[in-house]
Amino acid sequence: MDFSSATxxxxxxxxxxxxxLKNTKYEKYIQFWPIFLIGFLFALFATPVIxxxxxxxxxxxxxxxxxxxxxxDNPQKAIHEGITPTLGGLAITIPIxxxxxxxxxxxxxxxxxxxxxxxxxxGATLDDVFVLSSKAQLFFQVVAAGIIALSILNITxxxxxxxxxxxxxxxxxxxxxxxxxxxxxxxxxxxxxLVCINAVxxxxxxxxxxxxxxxxxxxxxxxxxxxxxxxxxSTLSILATGGLLIFLxxxxxxxKIFTGSSGKSVYGFLICILAIVADTKLSTTAMLLILPxxxxxxVIVKRYITYKPKSLGELMKISGLDHLHHQLIKLNxxxxxVVLIETSITLLLGSFAILATGAIRxxxxxxxxxxxxxFIVYINIKASKGQEEKLKKESPESKYSY
Length: 402
What we know:
Blueprint: H1 4-15, H2 27-30, H3 33-56, E1 60-61, E2 67-68, E3 71-72, E4 84-85, H4 90-103, H5 110-130, H6 134-149, E5 166-174, E6 177-184, H7 185-201, H8 209-227, H9 231-251, H10 261-279, H11 282-288, H12 290-307, H13 312-317, H14 324-330, H15 335-355, H16 360-393
Antiparallel strand pairs: 1-4, 2-3, 5-6
Helix pairs in contact: 3-4, 3-9, 4-5, 4-9, 5-6, 5-10, 6-7, 7-10, 7-12, 8-9, 8-10, 8-15, 9-10, 11-15, 15-16
């Protein structure tokens, strides 16, 4: 991996850091602030434009009317209100696609990542526009995961298992791009990517959840990447963080735009790739994605036991109100409360990935933030329920009594 061009670019960024922050322990984090700003500003100006174009050409999500090929989705899953434009994820993915060739040398490391992201973005955008079948969506995911599995990006270990991931290894090249097939490691990586893509994608059932969770996770990846001196992961994670911070304003309930497949099919993939690049371990990704992963596995197992599908394709077609956000809404929580609850849990659980790097101070900060958000949500829920009970007890005549 030749990051000489990125190193030169970082030296330029370093010159932009205010003098009073130089030569401090936070300097290595703060030097990325221009990248954060680029992502922030691009999303700020691009999101309204994308929303208008999506509305103009009817690339929208209509409650109870969205199709999947020839099959209708479960209308009850459409728990948002009103016709909402999609394609919003392009405000996050486009800057990332531009940043890779702009900041880094195109070589055997960056080209497969760029190609796989292009494949996912194209497939996801087609899904937003033409509403692809589940098989077509899975095809694009398989191609993207396959490109990475055959690349030189490898994993070095998996949690709880002491096995040789490179028992069989074969190196070759395609058009001058080095490829590496290592078994069983690459096979595990292939399926791990598919799981991460869909686990994150399935959190997008209620407005704002996938954006808030992804914002938290990309922020944590940035801290981990800087500590491991991974320039690639640091740059792309902080770029995504900046974009998602402003995009969450548009996606937070009541939503003005949806991330759409153009974002939700990419976020999980990118989170998985950047976490692996940072320290080459699956455990980091697992800790960061623990909430969507557990929810994903629970839903898969429950649907398999309930419907007994004959194939993986049939299993993936099943839809229902099984996810965590559906259960929280059944508890009469507002969509805003659901977003904040899931965000605080993601921040709390993801903080242990920070602890694994030895960053005690950042671990304490993320724990405090998650508990603070949870406390505020709890108070708001109690207050709203108390107000409802008060209104129920208050009769119309009592308003005019003395």
